[in-house]
Amino acid sequence: MADAGSVAGSVAARLGGALIGVAGADVGVARERARLGRLRVLAALLAVPCALLWRRILVGDPFNVLALPSLPPDWGLYLLPLLLVLALGGALAMPLFAGRSPHVLYRPEQIETTFDDVKGLDTVVDEVTKTLNTFLAYALYRDRLGGRPRRGLLFEGAPGTGKTHLAKAMARQAGVPFLFVSATSFQSMWYGATARKIRSYFKQLRKTARREGGAIGFIEEIDAIAMTRNGLNSSPMPSVARSLEVARFGSSEGTGGVVNELLVQLQSFDTPPLGDRVVNAVAGAVNRYLPAGRQIRARKPVDHNILVIAATNRADNLDPALLRPGRFDRRLSFELPAKQARRELIDYFLGRKSHLPELDDDARRDQLAGQTFGYTPVMIEALFDEALVMGLKHGHDGMTWSDVQRARLDSEIGLANPVPYTDRERRTVATHEAGHATAAYLAGTRTLEVLSIVKRKGSLGLLAHGDPEEVWTRTRGEMYAMVDIALGGMCAEELWFSEAGTGPGSDLVAATRVACEIVGSSGMAGSLVSLAAVENTAFNDTNLVGRVLADPVTRPRVDALLDEAKKRVTADLERNRRVVEALRDALLDRDELIGDEIVAVIERAGPVTLDDLRVERAAEAAARP
Length: 625
Fold this sequence. Notes:
This protein has helices at about 1-15, 25-60, 80-95, 120-135, 140-145, 165-175, 195-210, 240-245, 255-265, 275-285, 340-350, 360-370, 375-395, 400-410, 425-445, 475-495, 505-520, 545-550, 555-575, 575-590, 595-605, 620-625, and strands at about 105, 150-155, 180, 215-220, 305-310, 330-335, 445-450, 460-465, 590-595, 610, 615. By secondary structure, the protein is an alpha/beta fold.
């Protein structure tokens, strides 16, 4: 047991830490062995023609290997029949070529992405490092520890979360060929060609692994060929589902046949190559005539060192047989990056893109990390690319903070589409948005990001506000504050124009949704009963808002909550009229206010008042003489 412990410890010291090198690993040893074997075969093949050529040179009858063959004078007569035969042969061979593997092979030196370029996925990178170590040292792991290296990884997550990016980095770090294929490229119009393409792809994987010591296969969007079989029979109403089936024209392998072929190939990585199968067949035929002690020993199956990675956005729809150990041994989830991960991504992308010094400020970058909640890495990079376009438009070689904020507005809400307001409409929209901003500032729990009266999509104006820190839950006070902010525009219109127009319609939708969550789901309005517990069925898919508003008990509570919020916000805006008017006038003058510009306008208007109490911010107190 002590010897086993010491052996295990030495292997753990080698494979249990950072990514090991390729040269000294089993993959490198196998690659060098294969290279020397190819050199020996090449030398043997060239030896015979070289010997014949030297013999002719020595006997005085040299042969010019560069001389072109002579053609008969009437060779043009044979050209047209030859072309017709080639065309006919090509048409007949088309179904056969349809079964070729559609992959694209990348060498490690062709891939520029490394683990240093993978940001915000530390946990996933640690996991794939363990997988790569056992992949590179597969013989050591198998022979000395008795383990079986992982054969498959399933990357699941939303689009743009870095699945393909990490797979490329794995291929570069592992130093082995990378066979990329899109699952849709397996599909074919010819019967049986889809299954043949899958067989051909795995055949190429095995061949490449024998030649290079290992190979990584990557199947993009595997759900295109690996959906659950017999999906209609698993429906909650199978009789209704089957009645919707229609007759199919022509022939098709169907989902079941393609999935079955994929399952077989994933389980049968160690199919012997053709040479071994021929030798074993001959040995088996000869052994039929030999006694038991004198029979020819058959060749053992070759252990193909292959790692298959599949990516999908719909892992729950994959056939369960694919997810068992031995096929896809590990499922790795790619989540949306948290704030700290987004900060790493922001630092990484800004290190590669031109920007003004103001974006090097840590506070700015932290603020941007908070503003990009829900962004994927691809979305963050696209945001900076759009900001660079904004910077060029404004005449500077690099993005500014203002460029980033405007690019974020364009991507999240839509492009600015200024329209000619009437004087009354322009003043109404400015007052409406100023009411929202004042209510958000008075809440004390929101950061004001953008305030605008420029039309974007269906919105005549907007207030973008966020949390000071990334949060995953909300308190009762924060939920009520969200209702107050949504009603701020309507209350401001009624205070300054005696009535509200149709503009607050979307605000009432938002306020009603939050109020229904307070009353019917969060237990914040006097009742602990959650209407979200009512399950959806095939005949009842009403959402939470519909349940709350249809219930005779909770509907009055929602009405009362919204009425109380409106009275509260109206009183707050009345006490802080100068703040609303200052923001309104600034919007009328500049159309848009961004970040600190909003707060600066409010602070210049004077201290705010809450419940007849004058509230002075710390910055205002410091500036007061």
